[in-house]
Write a structure and sequence with these properties.
six-stranded antiparallel sheet, two-stranded antiparallel ribbon
Length: 126
């Protein structure tokens, strides 16, 4: 797929452990995917779960939040990252173990499943 995003990661978050605050991350890289067609957050959540269930993913939603937030492990690439659904977008949140291959593979599966392209924006902080 020649026109797909590269998912280059210019900055990986760094883990910090604090006695008082627990695990924290310094710095972020987030890829925000907007579908070419309108989807509700519930539609996007259903789409993600379908892709995850088809594999090669293990995933979990362990948080009681007003939005979908998953910790995802791509067993094919060994990449680990978070995926969130909010405001009609899917977000890939890079973790220290994340490589572009895992993000690219999930993007490809989402594109194949929906049959349309997605606009991808990268946000880097820290």
């Amino acid at each position: 797929m020649s026109n797909e995003p590269s998912f280059t990661i210019p900055r990986r978050p760094e883990r910090r452990y604090s006695r008082h605050a627990g695990l924290e991350y310094e710095g972020t890289t987030v890829f925000s995917l907007s579908p070419a067609a309108d989807h509700t957050d519930d539609d996007l959540d259903d789409l993600l779960r379908g892709v995850f269930d088809d594999g090669p993913y293990t995933y979990g939603d362990w948080f009681d939040l007003p939005m979908a937030l998953y910790l995802v492990h791509d067993t094919g690439t060994s990449d680990v990252f978070r995926v969130a659904v909010r405001d009609g977008r899917i977000e890939f949140h890079v973790l220290p173990e994340t490589d572009p291959a895992g993000l690219r593979n999930l993007y490809r599966r989402l594109s194949e499943r929906t049959g349309h392209r997605w606009t991808v924006e990268r946000h880097v902080e820290g």
